[in-house]
Amino acid sequence: MPEDSRARIISAAFDCIARYGLSKTTVDDVARQARVSRATIYRYFPEGREQLIRDVVDWEASRFFESIGRELGGVTGSGNLLATIISLGARQLEQHQVIQTLLDTERDLLVNYLTVESRPLLDIMAAFLVPYLTDLGLPVETTAQEAAEYVGRMVISLISAPGSFDLTNEEVTSRLVETQVLGWADR
Amino acid sequence: MPSNEAKIADSALRCLSRWGAGKTTVDDIARQAGLSRATVYRCFPGGRDAIIDSAINLELTRFFETLESIADSSEELGEFLAKAMHSAWCFVSGHETIQFLLSNEPESVVTHLAFEGLEGLIAISREHLSRYLDRWLDPRTGDELAEWCTRIVVSYSVCPTEHFDVTDLRAVERFVSVFVLPGVKSRSLSELSVEVPINGNEKS
């Protein structure tokens, strides 16, 4: 039961953010949407609004990667697979209405999650990538965790500042993966 | 004899490390520089924000100039990259103003480290690094490598990693040899019609 309530609150918070944006979403909005009391919200999120928002970001990021994983099916590791993952992710990101709206209207609030507070996102990405990287034959001087974190960091950097790289284009991501992102994997 | 611009930029850095970006005023900066408000505004009609931008650029330029002696003392590209990135990480972690702002007013710093701010930083970095990298690489490869190294330095600076100590040169050498160098080799070999030695003797 408690887990269901927590999940319901997070889902309601996401709906509020989708409707009102990050800065306008209040604890009261979320309580109303989730049909619980303010007190209940603070019981699950004692640090309040900040904690709730962090958890919503975590939750949505996990959902995002799960959906990429589903679309990839059971394919195993190869350099091209990583390129496919990145371009698939970039395309899904482009179509993610809530994130795109936030990028348009509340970029300042997202900036932290891409820089000083990027640890949660990095951890989610690294966890997602580890299984795909382990198949690739990593050099002995590194671990799958370190390599996955490295790839995650480069992807976050590219999302933040794509420069001339069109990440939705698999030719582009293939070249990136071969040269910078994956140049280090044994082939 | 430092120019007024340099004096003002330096004094801005000192004020920032003491009071942060929010509280630092043009008056503070002028007083610290020993100049009049009028002089400061003559040099920087854009006011406080223009001064701070200039201070950032000045610090960056200074940092990149320190890479010259590192480039001179490096025989191989890998050696230069490791020492340069190590130097960059030490520079950031030891920089009073940057650390103060990251801890107390991260919003003032992160705007320069994401989106257009990061694009701008990459562009500046490319300009400065290309003159060192062209000792080893063609301009295009050098350009791309400069971009990647900037992304790497920024990423590991703002969000520390548990996997290695960026202020430990040995650890950075390992990191560069595993994650950075191989990409350079595969790029230059696949794109150039003529094989170019990456470092002194080795072609691979």
Question: Main traits of this protein?
Answer:
heterodimer, A: mainly alpha, 10 helices, B: 204 residues, mainly alpha, Arc Repressor Mutant, subunit A, 75% helix, disordered C terminus
Give the rounded overall mean pLDDT of chain A.
87
Counting structural domains of chain A, the number is 1
Oligomer: heterodimer
In total, the number of domains of chain B comes to: 2
List low-pLDDT spans of chain B: 192-197, 199-204
SS content category of chain A: mainly alpha
Distance between the amino and carboxyl termini of chain B: 49 Å
The first-to-last residue Cα distance of chain A is: 49 Å
The greatest interface here is: A-B, 35 and 38 residues
Q: Give me the count of strands of chain B.
A: 0
Strand content of chain B: under 5%
Helix content of chain B: over 70%
- Give a quick account of the main beta sheet of chain A: strands, pairing sense, barrel closure: none
What does this molecule look like?
- The complex is a heterodimer of chains A (187) and B (204).
- Chain A has 187 residues and is mainly α.
- Helix content of chain A is 73%, strand content 0%.
- In chain A, helix 4 (49-72) packs parallel to helix 8, helix 5 (79-94) packs across helix 10 (170-181) and helix 6 (97-105) packs across helix 7.
- The N and C termini of chain A lie far apart (49 Å).
- The model of chain A has no long low-confidence stretch (mean pLDDT 87).
- By secondary structure, chain B is mainly alpha-helical.
- Chain B has 2 domains: 1-52, Homeodomain-like (Arc Repressor Mutant, subunit A, Orthogonal Bundle); 74-204, no CATH class.
- Chain B contains 10 helices and no strands.
- Chain B is elongated, with a radius of gyration of 19 Å.
- The model of chain B is unreliable at 192-197 and 199-204 (pLDDT under 50).
- The chains are: A mainly alpha (187), B mainly alpha (204).
- Chain A binds chain B through residues 107-108, 111-112, 114-119, 122, 139, 141-143, 145-147, 149-150, 153-154, 156-158, 160-161, 163, 178-184, and chain B through 102, 106-107, 109-111, 113-116, 118-119, 122, 144, 147-148, 151-152, 154-156, 158-159, 161, 163-164, 174, 177-179, 181-187, 190.
